[in-house]
Amino acid sequence: MSLSMLHCDGEKIINAEGKQVFLRGTNLGGWLLDELWQGFFKGGEAQWDIVTTLEKRFGKEEAERLIKIREDNYITEHDLDYLQSLGFTCVRVPFWYRNFQIDDSGTWKRKENGEIDFSRLDWIVEECEKRGMYVILDMHGVPGHQSIAHHCCRVNHCRLYDETDEGARFRTLACELWSEIARHFVGNGTVAAYDLMNEPMCDYEGEDKVNSKYHDVYSLLYDAVRRNDPEHIITLEAIWTPDDMPHPKEYGWENVMYQYHFYDDSNDSFKKVSQHHASKNFNVPVLVGEFSPCRGTATWEYILNLFNECSYNWLTWTYKGHCAKGKTSQWFMFGSDDEDNVVDINNDPISEIERKWSSIRTENCCKPMNDHALLSEYAKA
């Protein structure tokens, strides 16, 4: 039995029993889509490089097996038990299109029975359901790539917004992927929301950043989801301020939650963005989908108190990652500084890759990086 289906009611998230629910927890960043700065690999810039390099060296089947070893050990039931013990109510799960497709042409990975293989998402949804935690499904890497940043899965390769045949094809592939995800999870209340695109155009500046371009893609993806799933909340990201989002009525968006990512350098800057959202009269719930006081003078206690006072939903970035030797990082709840579990994708032999990626279970290689008791206190408040 899945958890109670959620929906938006003005600025609140309400469950099927009419009770307000707050989504508070963390991201499982790095699990299904790695990032060089936090990852257990070297020799490339993004997940694309991991996959293509291993495929060139060992073939598709062996590359898939090695990546499975990494994913099997990166997040386990141990991790979910721990998050439950903190009183977290939600995890956001970043993924990319190649978790479900073998190429850039939309060729599906399928099970023996012919069904599209969503087994990774099925596992996390089922395990979170057992623990009473909701899941936000986050398309961190969209077909055609929604930014030029490494965390969209491929560096400097954004084609999604191009007014070309290639751009149109990628938009079609992105719609087809979200359509199938929605078909697969329709009616599953444990899925709190669909997060259509992570940080679109996040590294674009000046005249190059045209918000209407990604608004239009949001609308295409929104329609693709709604054709198969009229119930689930859809969350749309403002990158980086409330000014980057239209009023939902402009596009006819309903049952949507607006999302902000905060990596500001002071308590005051966090407060200003929160106040700015309040001035926009969007009348939708707010999800702070990523944040960390990783710069400047911002503090965990001030930020968490601010978010709770504003009745925001929040998810830290991120649960786990790799730090430089001898260093700690406020980006992570748990971190490892052991260089011996970092795979050199260009040079390590298969046996070394197997050994290293088998060793990255949190309880084996990581230590706490921030105040988990404080996170737990505010998650339960």
Describe the structure.
This protein is α/β, with parallel strands linked by helices. 35% of the residues lie in helices and 17% in strands. The strands form four sheets. An eight-stranded parallel β-barrel has the order 3-5-6-7-8-9-10-11. Strands 12-13-15 form a three-stranded mixed β-sheet. The chain has a two-stranded antiparallel ribbon with strand order 1-2. Helix 1 (47-58) packs across helix 2, helix 2 packs parallel to helix 10 (350-358) and helix 8 packs parallel to helix 9 (300-309). The chain is globular, with a radius of gyration of 20 Å. The chain starts with 6 loop residues before the first strand and ends with a helix. The relative contact order is 0.15.
Roughly how many Å is the radius of gyration?
20 Å
Our measurement of the CA-to-CA distance between the termini, rounded to an integer number of angstroms, reads: 26 Å
Strand order of the largest sheet: 3-5-6-7-8-9-10-11
Helix content: 25-40%
Major sheet summary line: 8 strands, parallel, barrel
Q: Mean pLDDT across all residues, rounded?
A: 96
Could you tell me the number of beta strands?
Answer: 15
User: What order do the helices and strands follow?
Assistant: EEEEHHHEHEHEHEHEHEHEEEEHHEH
Coarse structural class: alpha/beta
Count of individual helical segments: 12
Principal-axis shape equals globular
* Low-pLDDT segments: none
